[in-house]
């Protein structure tokens, strides 16, 4: 009875709700790619033409005034229309669909559990009690969804604030039309204003992390999940309030203005690299400069992150993984679990959901699956990373890549089902990447005609070498594909959110050498840590890991001197 209701009533409804939520995400992505980016490119090209044209001194550069005014008005108006429209549509869609989904799913689950309870009360009392325990978990799941919506909305608030910061950055750079002096003066002014938005976004981030910690602690207690109770330690992210205060003056009067100055240096680095690489082809050089946004804003050559989650379906392979201790289904699903006697740092931050939905599998169905086999329960899937956590990692990667002159867009998160023990955990390392390259071939990469502007980012079920957090297969020297990156998700997120962009940095030609402390994205713990620089960064500086100016130079050296990369990024 329970299986029939789940397969024929609950799962179809849950799949519909999941598809609706994904459509809300796609609306935002579509607006960014099809509307916002073309407008930004047009404004960038116009600003560049304004900067390069000669000043008419007889009217005090009135030609540049008009050009500047047009670009500013277009930038502001389109930002208001596009950005406000994008976020209103996204937020209204998300809130309505999520709330309706929570209510409908909870009602159907309550009916399902009660029907199962009464049907099994006299024929199978143990199953009846299991139905009641599932009902308790259903209520906890509904509360989890409500708090999850709050966390997602806080994420969106942070992104909205950063959108305002990007507008201010663009307005500051527009004054470069009038020359280096005006560029420096107004860059400092608007850099100060952008620093305000960055600081506010950081405050929203630690509020989100604290709410997420409270969510994990409360729901871990209610579901008797020791893994999640431990992740409740994330509540201590509220201590970031202290660093937000200590960094305020530095952010406003140094970090913010310096970032816009760094952008001018980045622009010079990009232009120099392209000029040296394409000097013999003026037309292609001009196309490359336009494509990279040189002379305007936003600055950065376009590229794409292609995110995938490894997935294991509810079959015999999954039962073997659980039995052997590779995957603890109860711990990953957030059901009654002792976390295998481990600290949550060592556990997988994934999810166990009915296939095609975002609904967590009940404890009863996990019990029946392990005891009776896959045919006894509805189909479900184990994912290597929670979808919302993955989205936040991708947002961080996009934001940080801008500082080395790469402007990423993001495809929708897809899943890659696997049934090979080599992939769970991934049997690959820094000196043995054959298995990783085989995995990348499964998502369409090959050594012959892969597009290097598209960067696969695969979330995996850990590595055989447990010291690894991520791996990159990059196009360098004699190594010619398949290329891409893999990583594993771990607690705490505030530390490991930089792993995907660290591996993407390797993909773009960066190495560990020369990075000395944890305030640098390409730093590696094995190299040792300069605690003085680390404390300076997190207590008085940006408060997060960053790429360095040398990293930007190395990325553009790789782009300009690697024939395949140059051909793909700047055709």
Structure description:
By secondary structure, the protein is an alpha/beta fold. 61% of the residues lie in helices and 8% in strands. Strands 1, 2, 3, 4, 5, 6, 7 and 8 form an eight-stranded mixed β-sheet that branches. Helix 6 runs antiparallel to helix 7 and helix 6 runs parallel beside helix 16. The N and C termini lie far apart (60 Å). The model has no long low-confidence stretch (mean pLDDT 86).
Q: List the secondary-structure elements in sequence, H or E.
A: HHHHHHHEHHEHEHEEHEEEHHHHH
Task: Specify the biggest β-sheet.
Answer: 8 strands, mixed
Structural category is alpha/beta
Mean pLDDT across all residues, rounded? 86
For this entry, what is the oligomeric state of its chains?
single chain
Q: Which stretches of 5+ consecutive residues score pLDDT under 50?
A: none
State the share of residues found in helices, binned by percent.
Answer: 55-70%
According to DSSP, the number of beta strands is 8
State the shape. globular
């Amino acid at each position: 009875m329970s299986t029939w209701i789940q397969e024929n009533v609950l799962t179809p409804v849950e799949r519909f709700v999941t598809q609706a939520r994904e459509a809300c995400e796609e609306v935002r992505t579509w607006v960014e790619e099809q509307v916002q980016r073309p407008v930004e490119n047009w404004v960038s090209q116009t600003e560049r033409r304004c900067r390069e044209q000669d000043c008419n001194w007889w009217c005090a550069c009135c030609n540049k005034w008009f050009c500047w005014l047009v670009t500013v008005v277009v930038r502001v108006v389109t930002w208001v229309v596009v950005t406000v429209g994008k976020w209103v549509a996204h937020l209204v869609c998300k809130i309505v669909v999520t709330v309706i989904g929570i209510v409908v799913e909870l009602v159907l689950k309550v009916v399902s559990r009660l029907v199962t309870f009464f049907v099994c009360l006299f024929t199978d009392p143990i199953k009846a009690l299991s139905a009641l325990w599932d009902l308790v978990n259903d209520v906890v799941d509904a509360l989890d969804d409500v708090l999850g919506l709050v966390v997602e909305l806080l994420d969106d608030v942070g992104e909205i604030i950063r959108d305002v910061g990007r507008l201010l950055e663009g307005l500051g750079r527009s004054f470069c039309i009038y020359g280096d002096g005006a560029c420096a003066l107004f860059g400092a002014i608007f850099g100060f204003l952008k620093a305000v938005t960055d600081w506010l976004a950081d405050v929203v981030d630690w509020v989100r992390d604290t709410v997420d910690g409270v969510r994990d602690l409360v729901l871990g207690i209610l579901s008797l999940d020791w893994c999640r109770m431990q992740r409740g330690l994330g509540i201590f992210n509220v201590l970031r309030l202290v660093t937000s205060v200590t960094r305020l003056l530095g952010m406003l009067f140094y970090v913010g203005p310096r970032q816009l100055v760094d952008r001018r240096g980045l622009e010079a680095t990009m232009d120099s690299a392209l000029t040296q690489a394409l000097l013999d082809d003026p037309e292609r050089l001009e196309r490359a400069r336009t494509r990279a946004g040189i002379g305007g804003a936003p600055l950065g050559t376009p590229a794409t992150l292609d995110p995938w989650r490894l997935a294991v379906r509810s079959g015999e392979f999954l039962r073997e993984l659980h039995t052997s201790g590779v995957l603890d289904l109860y711990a990953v699903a957030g059901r009654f679990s002792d976390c295998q006697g481990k600290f949550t740092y060592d556990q997988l931050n994934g999810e166990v959901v009915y296939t095609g939905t975002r609904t967590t599998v009940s404890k009863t169905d996990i019990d029946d699956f392990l005891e009776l086999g896959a045919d006894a329960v509805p189909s479900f899937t184990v994912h290597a990373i929670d979808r919302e956590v993955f989205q936040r990692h991708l947002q961080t990667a996009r934001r940080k890549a801008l500082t080395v002159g790469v402007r990423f867009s993001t495809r929708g998160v897809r899943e890659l089902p696997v049934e090979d023990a080599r992939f769970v955990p991934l049997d690959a390392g820094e000196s043995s990447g054959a298995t990783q390259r085989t995995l990348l071939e499964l998502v369409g990469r090959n050594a012959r005609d892969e597009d290097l502007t598209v960067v696969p980012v695969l979330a995996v079920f850990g590595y055989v070498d447990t010291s690894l957090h991520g791996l990159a297969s990059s196009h360098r020297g004699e190594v010619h594909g398949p290329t891409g990156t893999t990583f594993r998700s771990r607690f705490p997120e505030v530390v490991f959110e930089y792993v995907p962009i660290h591996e993407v940095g390797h993909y773009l030609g960066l190495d560990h050498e020369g990075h000395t402390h944890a305030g640098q994205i390409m730093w590696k713990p094995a190299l040792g840590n300069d605690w003085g620089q680390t404390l300076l960064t997190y207590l008085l500086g940006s408060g997060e890991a960053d790429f360095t100016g040398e990293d930007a130079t190395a990325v553009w050296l790789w782009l300009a001197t690697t024939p395949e990369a140059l051909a793909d990024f700047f055709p």
